[in-house]
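step 3/5: co-fold with flavin mononucleotide
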Amino acid sequence: MNETIKTILNRRSIRTFLPDQIKESELKEIIGSGLYAPSAMNLQPWHFTVVQNSELIERLNEDIKLSLQGSGNKYLEAMVKREGYHIFHHAPTVIIVSGTDKSNFYQTDCAAATENMLLAAESLGIGACWIGLAAFLFGSQDSQKYIKEMKIPAGFKPLYAIALGYKKDNVAKPPQRREGTVDYIK
Ligand SMILES: Cc1cc2nc3c(=O)[nH]c(=O)nc-3n(C[C@H](O)[C@H](O)[C@H](O)COP(=O)(O)O)c2cc1C
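step 4/5: write tokens
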């Protein structure tokens, strides 16, 4: 098995992090990998915001939890009410992936960029977790102040977040793959 396939198979969502910040050189390689994702018509309709300000990460955590509490989704409401639940799992770096709907495929392109960054992180031995819950805040009115504070360019909408940091605990085994998800027509 080659190194790329090993990285793909070894990647797991990491939810416990050491407090130490990742190196600038590592961050650059991760971001660079996101920038080289494929995109429909090569529009590259993404913008990445790297947040390493712990005070801002905490405020985002609290406000995302608040927006989830009124979401009407019982599972998510119970989850964020759990003692100590942290949206970004206390990661020292959070990347917000925003997209512009000038491209019809911006969400798909931004998802491809997100996965590239998760795989790049794994290849460097860095833990990462895709944080879709961030979207609950960015769908609300409250998000405008954050969009301004984070200098997200006009016309771009935050879609996903990535929690990033050195892994703290041993990585759990991958969840079972669902059966019957592939057909071959020859
Ligand atoms: C679109 C998307 C959104 C996700 N959102 C969250 C999230 O908000 N919080 C979280 O802890 N994990 C989140 N995950 C991670 C999934 O829970 C995880 O990928 C899944 O359980 C499979 O585990 P694995 O990544 O270790 O293979 C998300 C994954 C995807 C693809």
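step 5/5: annotate
The chain has a mean pLDDT of 94.
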